[in-house]
Amino acid sequence: MDIVITIQHAANVHFFKHVVGELESAGHDVFVFAREKGVVGELLDAYEIDHELLCGEPRGWLGLGLTQLCYEARLLRRARAIDPDYILTSHGIAATHVGTLVGAESHVYIDTETTINGGNRLTIPFTDVLYTPESFRETYDAEHVRYPGYHELAYLHPDRFDPDPDRLRTHGVDPDDRYAVLRFGAWNGNHDIGKSGISAAGRHEIVDELATDGRVFVADEGDGPLPTSAEPLPVPPADFHHLLAFADLVVGEVATTTLEAGLLGTPTVRISPFAGTSEMGKFRELAEYGLVRSFHTDHETTAIRELTRLYRDPSAASNWADRREALLATKIDVTQYILSQILADVPEPTPEDRDSGPTLAASGSGPSSGSDAGSEALNHPGPCPETESPPRPDRPSVNRN
């Protein structure tokens, strides 16, 4: 089969990297098209994924719109030449439009609700099959399928990722030493209009508090100056998850990084304008499990007090490890799930498949409810039944097993 995959963000590279490798190992032709943003190109090169960058990184809000138009036009031209069977994307607006125009079946993976990411309104109406985590708080009538996982478990599921301390030692970091990782956002995405993160004074206060007990590594997507006592990230982007896994604390404004850290069992505090009553379903669920503590930026002082206490709590690491195991017992290898939805010979995984589920290349306990489950903890919604997708004429049908 011919399969197009679109990349708009660094998280998309991680999400699809194993999918690309397994599809190609099975003899399928995979065409990866990307729009530059941050370290997208660097990650694709690091993972040796053949790809084509269709557009550079936009500048300003006007540039974002023009870049999107350019990206869609160039993607359409490439797709017409390929005539793909499927187009796979994560939150990719262009992919669904192009899929409709060239007759490819679009499979779209979304994990951020429309109340936060308005771009969904331009994506979902053109989608053939929409996939969301069970924690997703919105329901769509047409071809909406839910699965027990998160995007990040396509690459951080224990069957896919094993933290390697030597990857840190190579870059001068002793994984046994105390250190914290801070991730600040750029706030220039289409869903960030009118939003801002931790104040400049708050950033300095956090670094000063944490630096008294260890090293503090800071990644700032906005390329601002580092606070005094902070150090830049010591590892390349491809090794970032190893750094998160051995950290004593992760603090961030960025949703993906804080969710990744929580899933790796690292004590995590998120300070975001999106936290609160309109919270994303995935963070509601992680709060219930006690894996990420989320605070609205209006409560920055409270958040700083809590992250400081948590960093000095000797039981935090073991508590998070136990909670992680409880969560993972209910989740699946999302890479295998993606493959199972387009390939009939790949079984749809279940949580019980951990460490034993076949991959494409190989085959051709309950939530914690303790008092420290997070200041914004809410009950997460239960799973919804899947809906069937009818076979599309002259295209491979979606495998529902």
From TrEMBL:
Identify the stretch(es) annotated as Disordered. 345-401
Q: Which organism is it from?
A: Natrialba magadii (strain ATCC 43099 / DSM 3394 / CCM 3739 / CIP 104546 / IAM 13178 / JCM 8861 / NBRC 102185 / NCIMB 2190 / MS3) (Natronobacterium magadii)
Q: Which protein are we looking at?
A: DUF354 family protein
Q: Give the source's domain of life in one word.
A: Archaea
Q: Which residues fall in a compositionally biased region of kind Low complexity?
A: 361-377
Residue ranges, compositional bias (Basic and acidic residues): 389-401
Q: Sorted alphabetically, which Pfam families does this protein's record hold?
A: DUF354
